[in-house]
Amino acid sequence: MNAINPWALGVFILFFAATIVIGSSIQWIRGLFSKKTNASSHEEWSLGGRGFGPWVTWFLVGGDFYTAYTVIAVPALVYAVGAYGFFALPYTIVVYPFIFLVMPKLWKIAREGGHSTAADIVRARFDSRALEVVVALTGLVAVMPYIALQLIGIRTVIQALGLPGDLPLVIAFLSLAAYTWLGGLHAPALTAFIKDIMIYIAVIVAVTVIPLHTGGYGALFASVEHAQTILKPGQGLPYATLALSSALAAFLYPHTLTGILASRSADTIRQNAVFLPVYTIVLGLIAMLGFMAHAAGIVTTNNSMVVPMLFQKVFPAWFAGFCLAAIAVGALVPAAVMAIGAANLVTSNLLPTQKDPVRTSRLTSLLVKLGALVCVLFLNAQFAIDFQLLGGVFILQTFPALILGLLKIRFSAVAMLSGWLIGTVFGVSLCWMDGLKPIHPVNFGLFSGNVSTGLLALGVNILIVLVVSAFYPAKKAATTPQQDSVENPA
């Protein structure tokens, strides 16, 4: 265990605690200064009143899309396996056209129908309570490993500061719980600005100073084995399929969809899709920290500690504390949106008749975080990034109902339920067989290679949907205004 450095710990506490206090008090402040705002309403707590403009949406969507996954897990994977860890870059590039083309349509349907979740939209399209429930439950299950990744991020930096035992995990859980309970969606929307500024400062300084400390970028790459800078034989297929499956899953999660539905207009979403690639540049620089750790002589068997150890070795204690606070805030902001998105599923789809939906949402978000805590304690994932990829296996099974449901081709609810069930069972079974790894070896004739488990399960899901739809076609019904808006979105 590291000795506690008072400068590093003091700076960390200052920035991390300030973020929690600011986020937790934002609802109260808004209630004081805005007579038109009902700070205690469920829509204010869960969707920010659906009034976020381009700037707030840009920071919020980027804030819940680029998480501890980005700052902790990606460099850790690059440190351990080299170029293979860069699959996160093409995945984020592929996802932006998807946002531009599809998300404004979903936003329009949600706004016209008063929907706040993916399950709401699916229910309106297929008129199936059963399908609504399974989509909501899938979102809840899928988001827990993702929140677990954020808890790991906060725990990791607190451990790096020298705090002992299980105390870092307890602090991570309690800080996240208080921040979400009091602040609602306005908390991460506001503090996403703080988070991004802190991350930008930490990354820009890191990619400038660390190479100088290690002899420049030439020396940096020379210190890394050549085999780590290129994909090894057999890594190309899992690299490509993980990138594709991650891109398809990215905006199906409750938290990313919550950021979209909280936007003021469809044009706001399109503008964000154009400018969000800026985050990919930062992601590429962050991934490089895995190589920089090798150049700086970092040696560890705990891959999640790579970036904190690198910052502590190269930077003075006070700036290392600032960088570690940036990572912790970078986990806190998206984890709050994840918990809120999951809570929306409960109050809107699983327990929609609650008299006090805000209280129910707060309790649900707390229970979801407890579920994430269980994931941290009992799931044996070698790399923190596996938590995000395992969640993707689940959430991809909602792709047919939510995205294919936008097409003019009418699929039946029976077909969607059958595809979801078989796809989920198939994906979970493969993950269990492979020791909770997100890729599966496939041998089919002359074809042999490792493929994303989520993509395999999605393929099975869609196949079942097509087959069952042939035998149980969708019932023809009179077109309602809401159906017309789905089939002919602006």
UniProtKB/TrEMBL annotation:
The chain crosses the membrane at residues 6-26, 84-103, 133-155, 167-185, 197-219, 239-262, 274-297, 317-346, 366-383, 389-407, 414-435, 455-474. Gene3D superfamilies: Sodium/glucose cotransporter. One of its GO terms (cellular component) is plasma membrane. It is a multi-pass membrane protein. PROSITE patterns: NA_SOLUT_SYMP_3 (PS50283). Keywords: Membrane, Transmembrane, Transmembrane helix, Transport. It comes from the Bacteria. GO terms for molecular function: transmembrane transporter activity. It is found in: Membrane. Coiled coil: none annotated. Its main location: membrane. Belongs to the sodium:solute symporter (SSF) (TC 2.A.21) family. This is Sodium:solute symporter.
